[in-house]
Amino acid sequence: MYGSGMGILKIETQTGSQNPVTLWMLSGNQGNTWHSLKNLTIPLDQDTKVTMSVIYYLRMDGWMDGWMD
Fold first, then answer.
1. Residue 14 is inside which H or E element, if any?
2. Is 15 a domain residue?
């Protein structure tokens, strides 16, 4: 998450038809280095799905670079 146009990265779970629950979220420019996410516990069962989403802010005067691995 590097650059002036970075938006939001989030991890959510959703069980059945319940509303999604945000477990972790990060936003904005995080610098020109790789970061690790540690100590995140994700409760899972056969009815739970996990989603990772990225929302970028488009800017005409800037640039951005984000990646999930």
1. strand 8-15
2. yes
What's this model's pTM, rounded to 2 decimal places? Answer: 0.70
Give the separation between CA 56 and CA 19, rounded to whole angstroms: 23
Contacts of 51 (CB under 8 A, 6+ apart): 11, 12, 13, 14, 20
Q: How many domains does the chain have?
A: 1
User: What are the pLDDT digits (tens) for 6-53?
Assistant: 778 889 999 999 999 999 988 877 888 777 788 888 888 899 999 888
Q: Is 52 among the domain residues?
A: yes
